[in-house]
Amino acid sequence: MSEPKWKQNLITGYQNFRAKPYKRHKDLYEEVGKLGQKPDIMVIACSDSRVNPSAIFNAYPGELFILRNVANIVPPYDPSAGYHGTSTAIEFAVKSLQVDAIVVMGHESCGGISAYLASLGAEEKQENAEHSFLSDWIQILDAAHENLLARNTENADSQRHLEYAGVRQSIANLLSFPFVEQAVSAGELSLLGAYFSIIEGRLLFADDEGEFKEIPSEKVA
Ligand SMILES: [Zn+2]
Fold first, then answer.
1. In sequence order, which residues have a C-beta less than 8 Å from that of residue 203 and are 6 or more positions away?
2. In angstroms, what is the span from residue 168 Cα to ligand 1's centroid?
3. pTM of the complete model
4. CATH 3.40.50.300 is held by the domain 37-214
5. Cα-to-centroid distance, 106 and ligand 1 (Å)
6. In whole angstroms, how far apart are CA 102 and each of 93, 96, 111, 133?
7. Measured in angstroms, how far is the CA atom of residue 144 from the centroid of ligand 1?
């Protein structure tokens, strides 16, 4: 019986990986495999299949510690009991790996942001509605939306502006973690907002005011 298409695609992809990228980095895989990881950068990105930090930053094995979730959201610091996957990864990156920087990368046409915008029009919660993890999760974007209303009312409901605001809010929420705030204050940790435009494959970084500026796509001699 032949394998289903999705499984065959995984096997073909793996074989291509072995033939090229793995072959090129064979020694590095062996080294980081034996000695452990020591990445300098944590990237928090969306789970979206089109926004792969390793590909965008052409990263080598062991270079980036990556967390991906729906809409690249960092929740506010909340030490109450619960399954805090995102907060766990941040804690590990800062306390154990002692990364130099955390980059939060938003992106164009984010489904999580679209879902949040769609939810604005449908405030009344239906009773007996089936529980949705997504609708709870994206409520964290309320603060981003409120900040956007305060900053730029005209564009408050624009997808792109909320994608930018979501990144700014994740950076602000990072600072609500005491160990992040301490490391930043001590000059041991930097935070950076980023944004990837899928259609043109372009990268933007946020400046100190939270405005996103395009990064040159070619090296200047
Ligand atoms: Zn997304």
1. 56, 194, 195, 196, 197, 214, 215, 217
2. 15
3. 0.94
4. no
5. 7
6. 9, 14, 23, 25
7. 15
